[in-house]
Amino acid sequence: MAVAAPINACPSVPTQIKPGLGNGSYGRGSSLGVKFSWPALAACVAASATSATQQQRPRSGRHRCLRALTERDTVKMDGFPDELFYLVPRIGVYHVDDAFRAQLTELYRQLIPSGNVLDLCSQHDSHLPSEGDYTLTVHGMNQLELMANTRAKDRFTRNFNEDPSLRELPPASFDAVVMAVSIQYMQRPVDLLSEAFRVLKPGGVLIVSFSNRMFFTKAIEVWRSQRNMKGLVNLVLNYFRESGFQDVRAANRVQTDDQTAGWPSGDPFAAVVGVKENNAGQIWERANGISWLEMNEAGVVL
User: Which residue ranges does the record assign to the Methyltransferase type domain (predicted)?
Assistant: First the structure.
């Protein structure tokens, strides 16, 4: 597949917080032997810039904007088109450490044992347990990275910061929607999670996981300004509630066999989990070894 395959922006996370030093999941470092023509790449950059400029024009009536954040909250230090930042595929690179990923896979194992799953802002790996029976649809920033996700049945690309819709997907069509270490880049997170709510079946689950790692210049201002993980968790909890989720919990640790074997836990783990409409009791009952954060009556993590 050519490098100029359609790519639309949905950032993911590096393992360092320093500006410009992140390893990425949508366009990072090594291409695992894929050879690029630099003239072709330059042409692709120019074409992407033109496309991105066109996409930034105001759109009338395409998608109703929900106001969870102010305009200032969503400002990024890097104002260049996201398409350029994620142009080159970085297949095989992870943004969080082994311990974080082991906890995420175990969380999926317990809350999504099987079913029709949509992975937003995906890459070459969706972190689903290998033994699960899944029908997987992946969205991402870079088509080459999505093609490397061999478990996926369907793939599509879109810049969610320009168009946070899932218009290809019918209502109530997924058992689960997941997003790993990418929510910090979303400038219209409530619009996007409202779409996730729409495509979930009744009783379906949305899981958004994150750490304090980021591409600093691509994360939005309100995310960069949080001083600790508790602030990040409460921010994402607000996104969920404004998107229509009423039964919401937040986890900060998941017991895994790897951790009991002594793996260090370097990258802080957090996941916000919401269930659509009903059957929430069944979801929570089958959760084992998950540390849920305590909240007050207003739903704020203490």
Answer: 160-208
